[in-house]
Amino acid sequence: xxxxxxxxxxxxxxxxxxxxxxxxxxxxxxxxxxxxxxxxxxxxxxxxxxxxxxxxxxxxxxxxxxxxxxxxxxxxxxxxxxxxxxxxxxxxxxxxxxxxxxxxxxxxxxxxxxxxxxxxxxxxxxxxxxxxxxxxxxxxxxxxxxxxxxxxxxxxxxxxxxxxxxxxxxxxxxxxxxxxxxxxxxxxxxxxxxxxxxxxxxxxxxxxxxxxxxxxxxxxxxxxxxxxxxxxxxxxxxxxxxxxxxxxxxxxxxxxxxxxxxxxxxx
Length: 267
Known about the structure:
By secondary structure, the chain is mainly α.
């Protein structure tokens, strides 16, 4: 059986697979070729829409798409300015609002395939709220957090087996790992949790992206206050979760605002 790792080659592979997150410069391990993930994401994006059909032509569906193209342009500008435009060279942007009022979630797959479930729209409320969510999800994608999580999962749960081999030998299990790595889940228990570092990185980059797109980053505070109110104190205590609590996240966002506001004030 072909394995991604061997005792002899592990150091070489780990060195080859290391990359850096935009803005923060944190080193991360991305073992799976991004081109392979993008090809897989295009297929999964279509499958998801078979389960949750897109809402088409409504004002809120048009809003998601309108904000999406502004955020995509901002992302391209941001990466170009930082010499990292190769991170999205294979992206084919697409923005869908999927019918599922019970799912309060959104995601961005590799290749720029973005979906909002209708359940999150009452919390988003407006264009700025959509931009907050979309900036955060796009940030996860361009920071390649999903690749990082999937790489860790392949190591921990499949003994370091290569993705193409995993898809052949354990197709459904591997598909679920892929979806979980990119936050495409209905129940929290299904998801592979983002680390607190990844969440903070996504918040920071997301604020900058929405600022470049012309949306006031201060709207992120209002969005997370609405999210906290919706949770009604029922969120998992921070010490039991790798996600920051809503209160903690709001505190962190306030510290990140000055940096993002510099981009916003340039508009």
